Queue: 2 jobs
Job 1
Amino acid sequence: MTYKVAALYQFVPLPDFRELQDPLHRVCLDLGIRGTLLLAHEGINGTVAGTEEGINALMAELRQGALFQGRLDNLELKFSTASEMPFKRMKVRLKKEIVTLGDPQTDPLRRVGTYVAPADWNSLIESPDVILLDTRNDFEVEMGTFEGAVDPRIRKFSEFKDFVKNELDPSRHRKVAMFCTGGIRCEKASSYMLAQGFEEVYHLKGGILRYLEDVPEAESRWKGGCFVFDERVSIGHGLVERPEDRSLLADE
């Protein structure tokens, strides 16, 4: 059996996020869906898996159902597949942030960097005046990244602020391009960097997942696998599972 996997997020005001937890959990259980969804005042984030019918029904509920009342009208959404169910259970968690940067002044609802479509990404990062940043954690970078990307060597996303403070300078790094798995970390990171005085900040729309889905492997600048936070461990071009990377993680 093949399972459909949906990675999704949207920054949107959800002042009632606590009241949404239990009914959203029930909807997912009724549809036979497993995975993790995070809810916070700033939006929703997560990855879930189920049958194609179940995932399609959940997406319809999120976008048009009574639960969110049309507020999730701009979901950043990527689909892939798994040969086995990649999650053990269904969890809906309440968080302070749907991706934790730890800077209360950073607000992607007010300002973010310039989105770059996957089709335009190669030409941007090949420009000699661009510094290319991988905003993911160190173990993710080790599994795969874009050619020429700077690895901040962070263990968790909240350390990205320290990397910017200690290693980057708005007067020297005038043109910054960044990427992450699905796009959500770059929403926060680009908003933070703009607030720190960096003039031009670009980020890959839809993240690595969208790039691997849209850009032919022959034209790709991506090397290795893209770590995903489920039992598949990593995926590659065409969003196909990479079983060979499971042994790499086991070795650690």
Job 2
Amino acid sequence: MAHKKGVGSSRNGRDSNPKYLGVKKFDGEYVKPGMIIVRQRGTKIRPGDNVGLGKDYTIFSLVEGTVKFTPYSKTQKKVSVVPLAQ
């Protein structure tokens, strides 16, 4: 009688937790300072005006305003926050 399970079933069973990456606030949406706009791995989307870049490449708002996406290159976009008129 075998003392080990079949190779397939004993080597399965590992899976990582989801990382919830992606755009959190889209073009034209209202943001407050500190709100996360994009969660990403690397700078797929580049930071523009009035946004900060975290050490894990998270882009967040520095001012109150609306989100604006613009082309950066053929493959990349740039995100900025347009401040509210005072």
